[in-house]
Specification:
about 500 residues; mainly alpha; 26 helices; disordered N terminus
Length: about 500
């Protein structure tokens, strides 16, 4: 039995150290304040427009994702209206909670103030968690559910109280309502149970009750999928094929060091992984990580999909290092702590400058835009809608009254749906993701303003097309819209009848 296991065995049913969580709370508050001060700098991201659109059409499922994130967005719209800072507040809160829970994990594992602060700061200054606070994304909440599952699992294993399976099941269920890729983490959890001493819970009714809670929470979305012929599965197949084909799944292993956690904290989470495997009681968490990462690797998942598995490793690593430092002389402790936190801060500063919109103009903005494609996607939407409105107003009166707007992607769809009412624009006609399920208007428009489609494709799909305008942004930021969809056309109706047109040109993404 190792020294760590002996200490754990002695304190098996004792409360965790009574040290204050002040450091994780301060770190979380500082990160939250940074995001609150900077999240209104640019505009909405194209993904946020899709959530905004779906939030206006709530259902138990959507083509691209489960229903939780649009539901939260609906709350944001109700409370704050169309506000960048208001809508992103939920992302900020989710990441702040994840930071605090990381500190709680360190405390549950026996860590004192240094371990709690180290684990919390390492998460706060990691690329993916920092990004999740800058935009409203389903991955933000997915990250939180993974962290909560890990925390509840640590509580389960430390206290030996099987009722924690209910909390684990609830977090799993909410994760399934947020992002389907959590099934890989679920596989890791079940494998961890089977491959560790936690298999004893297989005979416990609370384990099965936790599974029941997860399935009950997920049931409405599952029934929606059944009713829609598992359309999300076909969507995910399409997206995965696209990602692999475009090289987005390349560099998975490198991304575990560069994206998922602060690079300087790599020794910390590697120590945490080894620590979990050396510790019989908590070995389940080591398997949870290893199986999950292996599954994503062989399935050619993207590197950031596993980011939420690192807080638990960082928590354990911080505890192990804190204990190791205790045996060193004071000068040795101070030297190691100083070097580590300096390196962590330097890497963290680079992460912040690259990811957070610190400036509306100037060198920091230019650097962030050159390195961060997501920030570039926040430019030009208001100008796109204004341009479309100007094209509509230039049409003869008899065409204006029956004009419709056809869009090629969910960013254009959400932008015109959310920003268009200020210009009295009709709802866009979109064949993308869940908008396709909502159908086309009746009566069908005879004049169409077509956005996001190439010259070759509009001539193939629609009648009598002419170039009417250009899509770009006054900042000169090169992004998907300004680079790949520069032209806007005015056309007649589709060459196919509307039902055939709708069936043939359904578009994922």
């Amino acid at each position: 039995m190792t020294a760590i296991e002996a200490e754990d065995s002695q304190s098996r049913r004792e409360a965790p150290p009574s040290t204050s969580l002040s450091f994780p709370l301060v770190i979380a508050a500082a990160v939250a304040l940074l995001h609150l001060l900077t999240n209104g700098r640019y505009g909405f991201h194209r993904d946020e427009f899709q959530f905004l659109s779906d939030a206006r059409h709530l259902d138990w499922g959507f083509v691209a994702y489960p229903p939780f994130t649009p539901f939260v967005e609906r709350i944001g719209l109700t409370l704050f209206g169309l506000s960048l800072e208001g809508l992103r507040l939920f992302s900020v809160l989710a990441q702040a909670i994840a930071i605090v829970v990381t500190g709680l994990m360190a405390r549950e594992l026996g860590g004192k103030r240094l371990a709690q602060a180290t684990a919390a700061l390492a998460v706060a200054l990691s690329p993916l968690p920092m990004f999740e606070g800058t935009e409203f994304q389903y991955s933000t909440f997915d990250y939180l559910w993974w962290v909560l599952i890990a925390y509840f699992t640590i509580r389960l294993l430390r206290t030996e109280n099987p009722r924690w399976w209910l909390a684990i099941g609830a977090a799993v269920g909410m994760g399934l309502l947020t992002k389907y890729s959590i099934v890989f983490f679920i596989a890791g959890i079940l494998s961890g149970v089977l491959l560790s001493s936690a298999r004893r819970f297989l005979k416990n009714r609370w384990f099965w009750a936790g599974i029941g809670v997860a399935l009950l929470i997920f049931l409405p979305n599952f029934l929606w999928q059944v009713n829609h012929q598992f359309i999300s599965y076909h969507f995910l197949q399409h997206i995965h094929k696209r990602d692999v084909g475009e090289g987005r799944a390349d560099g998975f292993l490198a991304g575990q060091f560069l994206i998922c956690a602060n690079l300087f904290a790599a020794p910390l989470w590697l120590a945490g992984l080894a620590g979990f495997f050396r510790n019989r009681r908590f070995r389940m968490l080591g398997w949870m990580y290893l199986i999950t990462v292996a599954l994503f690797f062989f399935a050619k998942g993207r590197d950031y999909y596993t980011a939420a598995a690192y807080p638990m490793l960082l928590a354990m690593g911080a505890v192990i290092c804190e204990r190791g430092l205790a045996s060193l002389p004071r000068w040795g402790r101070r030297t190691i702590v100083t070097v580590f936190f300096t390196g962590l801060a330097v890497c963290g500063a680079y992460v912040v400058v690259r990811i957070v919109p610190l400036q509306s103009s100037g060198p920091l903005r230019d650097f962030a835009l050159s390195k961060n494609s997501d920030l570039r996607e926040e430019f030009g939407w208001q100008e796109l809608v204004k341009t479309v409105a100007g094209i509509r107003d230039s049409l003869p009166p008899e065409q204006q009254s029956g004009a419709g707007i056809v869009v090629a992607n969910y960013g254009e769809q959400g932008a015109i749906e959310m920003l268009g009412p200020a210009y009295r624009l009709p709802l866009p006609i979109s064949l993308t993701n869940s908008a396709w399920l909502r159908g086309y208007p009746t009566p069908q428009p005879t004049t169409l303003i077509v956005v996001g489609v190439s010259r070759e494709d509009v001539d193939d799909i629609f009648q009598g097309c002419r170039l009417a305008g250009h899509n770009g942004n006054s900042e000169g930021v090169k992004n998907e819209e300004s680079r790949d969809h520069p032209d806007i056309f005015v056309c007649g109706p589709p060459k196919l009848r509307w039902p055939e047109f709708w069936k043939k040109y359904q578009n994922f993404g």
